[in-house]
Amino acid sequence: MSKNKVLMCGNEACGEGAMAAGCTFYAGYPITPQNELISYMAKRINETDGAFVQAESELAAISMVLGAAAAGVRAMTSSSSPGISLKQEGISYLSACELPCVIVNMQRGGPGLGNIAPSQSDYFQAVKGGGHGDYKLIVLAPMSVQELFDLTFLAFDLADKYRNPVFILGDGLLGQMMEPLVISSDMRPTHYNKSWALTGCKGRKPGIIRSLLLGDGVLEAHNRHMQDKFSLIKKTETRVQHFNTRDADIILVAYGSVARIAKAAMESARAKGLKVGFIRPITLWPFPDKAIEDASAHAGKFLVVEMSAGQMVEDVRLAVNGKARVEFYGRMGGGVPCEEEILACVEASLKSGGAAR
Amino acid sequence: MKKTKKIKKTKKVKKTKKVKKEVAFKNVTPNPASLRTVDNHYCAGCGHGIVHRLVCEAIDEYGIRERVIAVAPVGCAVIAYEYWDFDVTEAPHGRTPAVATGIKRVRPNNIVFTYQGDGDLAAIGTAEIIHAANRGENITVIFINNGVYGMTGGQMAPTTLAGQKTSTTIFGRSLRREGYPLKILEMLAILPGVKYAERVAVNSAHEVLRAKRAISKAFKMQIDGKGFSIVEVLSMCPTYWGMTPIQAADRIKNEVATFYPLGVIKSC
């Protein structure tokens, strides 16, 4: 096994992860701060037999992905917050039709046109279902350039395995920053049987990809089937990292780029002798509520840090279910918390005591 | 076989009247193989059933049934896949040409066509049709223009004629208030990516034959790799025109086709 070490920005690493996973179709529409990704895919896919389309809109881009996914290939689109809002229509259809694909959101400040600075205020949209109907996306939250590569690679396998769209929830900081990336030469995507794909009906019955189910009880049965699938995904695909949670008085919870800042704050706190732990969800859906619940048995407090007004904190509260106190520190509209800010919050919280058991 | 034997027998008996009757009942236009023999949900006098059949006849004519991947619209033809015996996917409303683009780009050897109504193509999907056409996607578009939203109860479509009463223009379409009927085929025809554009109708046997030729040609264009082809079909909606099927067919000739002229608009 040979390893290739390169310097790349996060958006490019995401694209390279897609290429390593065998992505052969990409459609997208330019929007900052994910433009390096669309340009990278234009270059890389056109070096292969795959197809790249710069779409006329986000609506068209996600629908092109729907077409390519229905035809059985590995397909991807990417955007940033306002563009992801437009894609919700297609995402709902892809989920309903059980079509595998990968969707990347390099979040920027909102609401509205907002700004182009990093943000995490699309958490609800990603994990609760931004489009209509009862569906779930598998939502992966990378925290480094390396993980943008690794988790995008994983995303394609998960999408095919469960016939479900997989969402990469990054942000402008992760997309733009450059870090060393190690690419193994022996990464091989898993091959999944796609007998459901539309390829022309030679030698088989004609296939239909549809989400319109009008017969009495048929749509409810389909929803039950989807919920069963989501239960299975929750059981098997939850991913989380813990650090120093065993003896912690307070546990920091953060994801994505904030996770690396929060982790640094934890390390500084530990150096000062403060018993601070850290939990980092890698999958935002399925949310690692078991890990949080277990930690609440021995930590009195949680401090959730996000670049939002408080979105993931609601899932932490649901997981803790009143067994510990859950505090929140957030920055909005493109504000990025620094290590010292988080450390100050931790110290203030520990000083105030008041762990609610 | 049995039938022909019977006919021969009757011939021997020389009962000429009976022979004529039996010949008259012989099915000389069996269903195309690509069209399922099932009841459909279309109203009496609706043109969709005719166009579904013409599409299937063209597909059978070229022997491409096993290569076809169709994209069904949102609208009256939303469940076209219940009637067509080949691969079909649905599409979000109006995104039909974008879905077709995704399919054709990854499966260029398949024959990909969209089947869209005037709401799907000329209203909510205007951007998608213009850009698919402008990219010169090698796909075929069958565009049904009946001037109303049928599935949702007869509201005004972009193609509704001036003065036409619909459930959202109860006193008739006012050009001042609702703007002009959209001649989207003429708009598309100016794009270099469009290689074939023809407007036909299905209001009479004569027009149906012309429509069949146009639809066949549109598929041939794709088979030959020529690029984007579109056939607009002026179709009847007796239900939401408030007419009998015969009145509706006459209206195509006397009103609709005078505003939307029939014929080849572009052929490269």
Account of the protein in words:
The complex is a heterodimer of chains A (357) and B (268). Chain A has helices spanning 10-20, 35-45, 58-70, 81-96, 123-128, 145-162, 172-176, 218-237, 256-271, 289-296, 312-320, 339-352; strands at residues 3-9, 25-28, 51-54, 75-79, 101-107, 138-140, 165-171, 178-184, 208-209, 240-243, 250-253, 276-281, 283-285, 301-306, 325-330. By secondary structure, chain A is α/β, with parallel strands linked by helices. Chain A has two domains: 3-189 and 208-237, Thiamin diphosphate (ThDP)-binding fold, Pyr/PP domains (Rossmann fold), CATH 3.40.50.970; 241-352, Rossmann fold, CATH 3.40.50. In chain A, helix 2 (35-45) links the parallel strand 2 and strand 3. In chain A, helix 3 (58-70) packs parallel to helix 4 and helix 10 (289-296) packs across helix 11 (312-320). The termini of chain A are far apart. The radius of gyration of chain B is 20 Å and the shape is globular. Residues 1-13 of chain B have low confidence and may be disordered. Chain B has helices at residues 2-13, 16-24, 48-62, 96-106, 118-124, 126-134, 175-178, 184-189, 205-223, 238-241, 245-259, and strands spanning 68-71, 87-89, 111-117, 140-145, 148-149, 155-156, 194-201, 228-234, 263-267. In chain B, the strands form two sheets. Chain B has a seven-stranded mixed sheet, with helices on both faces. A two-stranded antiparallel ribbon of chain B has the order 5-6. The interface between A and B is large, with 42 and 36 residues.
Largest sheet of chain B: 7 strands, mixed
Give the second-level CATH assignment, the architecture of the largest domain in chain A. Answer: 3-Layer(aba) Sandwich
Radius of gyration of chain A: 21 Å
Largest interface (CB within 8 Å) is between: A-B, 42 and 36 residues
Number of strands of chain B: 9
What is the total domain count of chain A? Answer: 2
Question: What structural category arises from helix and sheet content of chain B?
Answer: alpha/beta
Flag low-confidence runs of chain A.
none
Number of helices of chain A: 12
Label the overall shape of chain B. globular
Largest sheet: spatial strand order of chain B: 2-1-3-4-8-7-9
Unreliable residue stretches of chain B = 1-13
For the residues shown, what is the average pLDDT of chain B? 93
Helix content of chain B: 40-55%
Question: Which class of the largest domain in chain A in CATH terms?
Answer: Alpha Beta
